[in-house]
Write the structure tokens for this entry.
Amino acid sequence: MTAAILLALLPIVLIIGLGQVLRRRRFLAEAFWPQAERLGYYILLPCLFFNGLATADLGAIPVARLAATLVISTSLTALAVVMLRPAFRVDGPAFTSVFQASIRFNNYVGVTLATGLFGPIGLALAALCNAALVPTVNILSVLVFARFATARLTLRSVLLQLLRNPLLMASLAGICFQLFGLSVPAGIEPALHTLGAASLPLGLLCVGAALDFDKARQWIGPVAASSAIKFLALPLITLIVARLIGLEGLALTTALLFQALPTASSAYILARQLGGDAPLMAGLTAAQTVLALIALPLVMTLLALLAGFAS
């Protein structure tokens, strides 16, 4: 397990590092990175998710148990974080950043890891994890913003946030293709496959370019607290819920993998738009991305031993 994860992590680390170097050396214009993120988020990654789900053989995947495990464990962790809010000793906007760092996940790292470890079935499992987790973490995050941030949100704005999420819409469209027995036209499927494949290296480059280590050093307490929840508490709760529900095999491994991922760089955008502490969110994202290089293999190996599927 450890060796396989390290081998799968190596190209991810190299590409993220390249993104950081390109940004610091100003090899590309500063305006390139926001546009690249937009292209990946709205076009390339949705193509990957839609095509992966629409063309995958989901017959052997316990879709309901996988989704239930992810939704329940994430919701329980979110509730615990809110209950523990006084212990973090931060103001409301800063708490929203700690909250996002505790439950959000990096799509690009997760999909690349799952695909590298398990191949096409890993891509399908990753897309299903996204379909379950994207609405869950977005609803929970927006609710926390509505309570603790400076912006005040309505139910309508929460629903619009979900309806405008291209990853969620693409995943649901792919699942609908499966449910209704539809097939992607022969001339279109290769184009979707090629666009989707381009999303992973470009997305990882953008992850590297977005890292801000200067801000990470200013927030040792929130970094430590959110990372302990993200890399330890959330995966452990997920394992417990999975055992109660009966999830096992590759589906369980992928669920644990996604719950142990570092937080998403898109959390910074949400913090900036909805009245959170955006600088703190940037620091948490950078710190967790680096910590994941050590934490992810260790946590997955420990969980593998606990779950009894170590190899």
Remarks:
- The radius of gyration is 18 Å.
- Residues 2-307 form a domain with the Na+/H+ antiporter like fold fold (CATH 1.20.1530.20).
